[in-house]
Design goal:
With 452 residues, this protein is of the alpha/beta class. The chain is built from 14 helices and 20 strands.
Length: 452
């Protein structure tokens, strides 16, 4: 049995039954059978279904959002925005899917070759709690458009969201078995990956979870996409609009209560503007209103659980033991639930063990650097390489950052955010493969060469 705990109150929420092995077998068989039909379906029908799913998400946005807020604590307004983004993801593939599936042509010395994108089969998705809808739709929308079918193993704490996604897709008229929620524990994942009926697997989650899934996929010789953690740099150079950079940095660090893989976590600031940035950034972080996520004036709700909150508190303590200074924040307010105030750390030793970790909560590290070379070296001095944000109006500096920061994404003079049209993913220990855009569609397709 899965029982969610409302992180804003600490009280139990809805309960959901765990599937038995026999029930999992039924769902696997259904997925296999449905793929046999869906793989040859008319792409126009797939696009029409995606449009209808988008409409269901839009029509039911508030009800869906409330489930997320109650299960993992994000503010209701941000949860509504997440559901709306899901609708945009479905619409992207409904508008462009046909073109993205078009055949290509290659001329060779031996004759003509047609390249064709073909579906692979049922795709297993192992998804996290922090964006309980958007993370899933990043896989589900291209899966449906490709002619594949989806099986979702969602985080235990957001089983209400998982069930709601399946219900919304069925409500839009999807055939039974096209998208199914597997309410199972993590210890069942390896056996699922080994099953011949699963064609591929995608995971968004922690580095540890990624290692286990990649190991299981490797043993089964199956394609895997991994979107793992990040400790994204937010670099501010002297030519930047410091006011705008500092304001954006506050949002980038506290969005989703700091529980986002692409949150800006390390502020790397040139010495010439360090003091000005730190003053403005600190004032902004202090002004963030932490409170009931259902209230419209709350900027930030609780963390996803008291366990997650305590993990961040422990990290801050280890930073201080390693010589860092906590300017303010990172405190448990006098509220029930898993709340934590925004905090700022300075004088951080980048070589300390804790500085190599991802802080999955609303606490920022702020570093001072002397020049662009030091900024790039520090930006790359972590095992992660998911995203980055750089602030400079100097075109030469922009090109240096784009070329030399080891990350899957670099935003220039803006906050990094995912969008349905652009590739999403990282390098190093942030994973491999790409989601979204044509790249996300093609990750789990067979590019066949038809010769002659």
């Amino acid at each position: 049995m899965f029982t969610s705990i409302n992180p804003a109150t600490g009280k139990p929420g809805q309960s959901h039954a765990e599937l038995t092995d026999a029930q999992v077998e039924v769902q696997l068989a259904k997925a296999h059978d449905t793929f046999g039909m869906w793989r040859t379906s008319d792409p126009h029908d797939r696009m029409a279904l995606l449009r209808r799913i988008a409409e269901v998400f839009e029509d039911d946005r508030e009800a869906l959002a409330r489930i997320a807020t109650e299960e993992m604590g994000k503010t209701l307004k941000s949860a509504i925005a997440e559901v709306e983004k899901c609708a945009a993801g479905f619409r992207y593939y409904s508008r462009h899917g046909l073109k993205l599936l078009e055949d290509g042509a290659v001329e060779t010395p031996a004759g003509h070759v047609t390249t064709r994108w073909l579906p692979m089969g049922p795709v297993l998705a192992v998804m996290p709690w922090n964006f309980p809808y958007w993370q899933v739709i990043r896989f589900a929308a291209p899966t449906i458009m490709a002619g594949n079918v989806g099986l979702l193993k969602h985080a235990s704490s957001v089983q209400g969201c998982a069930a709601a996604i399946e219900a919304a897709i069925l409500k839009a008229g999807a055939p039974e078995g096209l998208f199914q929620n597997l309410a199972i524990k993590s210890d069942k994942i390896a056996d699922l990956i080994a099953d011949d009926r699963i064609a591929a697997v995608t995971l968004t989650g922690s580095e540890g979870a990624g290692v286990k899934v990649a190991e299981a996929a490797g043993k089964a010789l199956k394609k895997v996409v991994l979107e793992l953690g990040g400790s994204d740099p937010f670099v501010v150079m002297p030519s930047a609009d410091v006011d705008l950079a500092a304001k954006t940095a506050v949002t980038a660090r506290t969005q989703n209560t700091g529980q986002s893989c692409i949150c800006a976590k390390r502020m790397i600031v040139h010495a010439d503007v360090y003091d000005a940035f730190l003053d403005k950034f600190s004032a902004g972080m202090k002004a963030v209103k932490t409170g009931d996520p259902m209230e419209p004036d709350s900027d930030m709700g609780p963390l996803s659980s008291e366990e997650q909150r305590d993990t961040v508190v422990d990290q801050v303590a280890r930073f201080r033991e390693a010589g860092a200074t906590l300017l303010f924040g990172a405190e448990k307010p006098d509220l029930p639930g898993a709340y934590l105030t925004p905090g700022v750390l300075v004088d951080v030793d980048p070589d300390a063990d804790v500085a190599q970790e991802e802080i999955f909560g609303p606490v920022a590290m702020v570093f001072k650097v002397a020049d662009i070379d030091e900024a790039i070296a520090l930006a790359n001095d972590v095992p992660f390489g998911l995203g980055s944000s750089v602030w400079t109006t100097d075109k030469t500096e922009q090109e240096r950052f784009a070329r030399d920061i080891a990350a899957g994404m670099t935003a220039i003079n803006r906050m990094l955010a995912s969008t349905p049209e652009a590739p999403f993913g990282g390098v190093k220990r942030s994973g491999h493969g790409r989601e979204l855009g044509p790249w996300g569609l093609h990750e789990f397709m067979n590019l066949k060469a038809v010769i002659g």
